[in-house]
Amino acid sequence: AAALEAQAVAARTYALHTMEQNKGKFYDVSNSTDHQVYSGVSGESQATTNAVNKTKGVVMLYDQRPINALFHSDGGGYTEDSVNVWGSDVPYLKGVKDFSTGTSTSNWTVTTSRQALESKLNAASKGVGKLKSIQLTPLGKPGQQTSDRGVSGRIKSATFIGTSGKTTVDGDALRSILGLKSTLFDFYVNHNPAKGTGKAYHSFTGKNDTVYIKGHGWGHGLGMSQWGAAEMAKRANPGDINYYQTILRHYYSGITLKKMY
């Protein structure tokens, strides 16, 4: 219940924030992934209705304004600073520890080949010929930002070196090109991470290279992790009827909660 209550406040706050941004448009909020997915009454349940009613009118504020209360499916162990995803530093969207344990979302592996990787880069006008190596800081423990990775370890950029030159691809574009769940991942060329030490391998042999991509989380990694909120909710004391506030204050830095109606 606490996770659904946190989601209700986040959704309400996001809607109010977006309504302010779209004052001059013909609509306030769309029901797609552009804003918030809503499948109509058929997508509702008694549990979600209870969460909405329990938190009626409660909104997250920063500097007395409704925040851009972004959320995503799974933080993969750590959420990200907005500056490393959008380029703008939003004070309440900072990377924090995530408690997600979703079996298919927290950890995932994609297996492909060098040739397939080259084809996808070519299709995105990022081709460099036959791949030789990838310049990318190996994925380490979260909390230590590098020039090409954010505070969570999410890729800000990676450089592909091939026989016809090199190209640098930003994290979001790379996620889209490869069709991945998040930008929190690394490459393991010819070394299956499930069987090895976990060390990343970024060099190709030029033969029948197998490329393993091991990643974590699902979504952009900003704001509240829905699976992380669900895991936090399991830890609430039975008598804590407002634990949803603890969840929100964890994922959104420096916010205040106010009942506006």
Layout: helices, strands, pairs:
Blueprint: H1 2-21, H2 46-54, E1 58-62, E2 65-66, E3 71-72, E4 108-113, H3 114-123, E5 131-135, E6 157-162, E7 165-170, H4 171-178, E8 185-189, E9 210-215, E10 224-225, H5 226-234, H6 243-251, E11 256-259
Parallel strand pairs: 3-10
Antiparallel strand pairs: 1-2, 1-11, 4-9, 5-6, 6-7, 8-9
Helix pairs in contact: 1-2, 1-5, 1-6
Strand content: 15-25%
Number of strands: 11
Radius of gyration: 20 Å
Structural category is alpha+beta
Identify low-pLDDT runs.
none
Describe this structure in words.
It is built from 6 helices and 11 strands. Strand 6 (157-162) and strand 7 form a beta hairpin. With 261 residues, it is α+β, with helices and mostly antiparallel strands. Helix 1 (2-21) runs antiparallel to helix 5 (226-234) and helix 1 (2-21) packs across helix 6 (243-251). The radius of gyration is 20 Å and the shape is elongated. Helix content is 25%, strand content 19%.
Summarize the structure.
With 261 residues, the protein is of the alpha+beta class. 25% of the residues lie in helices and 19% in strands. The protein is built from 6 helices and 11 strands.
Summary keywords:
11 strands, alpha+beta, 25% helix, 3-stranded antiparallel β-sheet, 6 helices, 261 residues
